[in-house]
Amino acid sequence: MPLLVKHADEMATVLADSALHRFIGGAPADREALRTRYRRLVAGPADPAVSWLNWVIRWRAAACLTGTVQATVSPSATGPIAEVAWVVGTPWQQRGIASEAAHGLVAWLCTQPVTEIVAHIDPQHHASAGVATAAGLTPTDEWQDGELRWRRPTAEL
Questions:
Q1: Fold for domain 49-156?
Q2: For the chain, give me the number of helices (H) and strands (E)?
Q3: 100-107 contacts: CB < 8 A, separation 24 or more?
Q4: Quick one: what percent of the chain has pLDDT higher than 70?
Q5: Could you give the CA distance from residue 84 to residue 111 in angstroms, rounded to a whole number?
Q6: Over residues 116-133, mean pLDDT
Q7: What is the layout of strands, in order, in the sheet containing 81-88?
Q8: H/E element holding 98?
Q9: What are the Cα distances from residue 99, in Å, to 8, 30, 128?
Q10: pLDDT tens across 11-62, in order?
Q11: DSSP state letters, 22-57
Q12: Over residues 79-94, mean pLDDT
């Protein structure tokens, strides 16, 4: 479901484990900081050529939020590129939730006017590499800020 500011209260608990930040940096945000961040995300980017697409992941079995998936779609010389990311709270990891959500996001993006889907993953983050693989992305030899670029041309779906 689309991310809303009201999700910040529940998501602050979902994202409270500092271990989630081992690879992405930073620290868990409190409810108010997350509300502020979600307000910015819901408002959208200042650049009209860029789109921010953000969803919360709701696990039906427990009727609770478990994480987020997101895509930033930006123009490039070859056409729009979607950079994707995901995070699932520690208690819900290793259940296939991130893989299912990321796969759904990538499948949907392949139906949109996007030429390529990319993710940047720390080479030590094996779980995230598994999610990327499940979503159909493959590693490249390109690096950005110490993270390996994974990609999928949308014509492959």
A1: Aminopeptidase (3.40.630)
A2: 4, 6
A3: 101/55, 101/57, 101/67, 101/69, 102/69, 102/131, 102/132, 102/134, 102/135, 103/134, 103/135, 103/136, 104/69, 105/55, 105/69, 105/71, 105/135, 106/135, 106/136, 106/137, 106/152, 106/157, 107/157
A4: 98
A5: 15
A6: 96
A7: 51-59, 64-74, 81-88, 116-121, 147-153, 138-144
A8: helix 97-109
A9: 23, 26, 9
A10: 999 999 999 988 888 899 999 999 999 999 999 999 999 999 999 999 888 8
A11: TTT-S----HHHHHHHHHHHHH--SSTT-EEEEEEE
A12: 96
Q: Is 146 exposed, middle or buried (0-12, 13-18, 19+ CB in 10 A)?
A: exposed
Q: Model pTM?
A: 0.93
The predicted-structure confidence for 108-123, as pLDDT tens digits, reads as follows 999 999 999 999 999 9
What pLDDT score was predicted for residue 157? 41
Distance of alpha carbon 137 from alpha carbon 131, whole angstroms: 9
Indicate the domain borders of the chain.
49-156
What does pLDDT average to over the chain?
94
144 pLDDT above the threshold of 80: yes
Q: How far apart (Å, rounded) are the C-alpha atoms in residues 123 and 107?
A: 24
Give the tokens for residue 121. Answer: 């993953």
Q: Write the DSSP symbol of residue 112.
A: S
